Amino acid sequence: MLTVPFAGAPIFTRSRALRPTGKVLPEHARSHNRALVLQTLYSSGAQSRADIARETGLTRVTVSDLVAELIAEGLVVELGQREDARPGKPATLIDVARDAFQIIGLDLSEHEVFRGAVTALDGTIAERAELALGGATGEAAAQLVEQLVDRLLALATIPVLGIGVGSPGVVDPHGVVRSAPNLGWVDLPLQERLAARTELPVHVANDANVAILAEHGETLLDDLLLVKVGHGVGAGLIVGGRPVIGGGFAAGEIGHVVVGTDGGPRCACGKDGCLEAWVAEPRLTAQLEAVGDVDAADARDEILREAGRRLGIVLAPVVGALNLTEVVLSGPAELLDGAFHEATVDTLRKRTMAELNRDLRLRMSEQAEDIVLRGAAVMVLSGQLGVS
Questions:
Q1: How many Å apart are CA 351 and CA 318, to the nearest integer?
Q2: Is 83:48 a contact under the CB 8 Å cutoff?
């Protein structure tokens, strides 16, 4: 089993920026500068050693030393000489060894299946697998995760860099699922358990936090809020280019915020009227299926509008407090686009200051059901190579 020698800090820490952009203190210099070289190549493509030195501000000697180390570890490859009309010896181009490793990603956020994929380093999906959840909770659900990982490892065709998992619930930086009511998990050491089983680096985080990594890679916005609707409801938040996880690792757990004072449906957590009880996919789907044929379209739209209003009520204080201009919805388009979306936008605008939210944009993610899988690949890249 191949083990990658370098591992960066977990991406979901309180001080971790998503992308290294410059030199750092001497005591952290070597690991940071390795990540800086890899990030430069990963983002910009093939370059010469001199190109990297100019772009990063590192000395040519430092770059040459780091590149030699990365080549020896199989993380960087030489591509041959650049065709150059300038006098002198043509420079040798180098790049990240993009075809040397694959990544395994898992999405545990859906209410009917656990989904997984084998991806390339750029997030391109090579193979897929899924297992029906069948109502499993607790240890039975944890064993399904293990079975899915085994299946995906069998589909990998080259060494695996690591495994990334997006799980519902509160997940700490050590990959312990502190609480996931829909799956019946309390203090489940999922990261440790999968690492022991596979002898590979494993990174586990909340599914919405994982999803926003994929969305951030597309938008490059420094401030972004993503709401993930699936088995439950959660939010991922990036502020100033850094993921926000909170002191108790529960930032974004908006699903169990009670909306209003009028009661509401019973939630899996035991309270009445939680946002999740209004908006989660199983609840909305069941309500829509129960609508009869008489005035069915209007009745379905009203169900979706009410759910959208409830989401807007919860999001308004967050949008107002952080002065966000971009909010992304991720989940089933047939539920979230249309009446749901319109009601959420209308509620947000009514409940925040007009002069501050005129640029507010609420949109559907274009990454559809693969957003957590792609975010899982970003999480592994960041954790193992320090790039994203």
A1: 11
A2: no
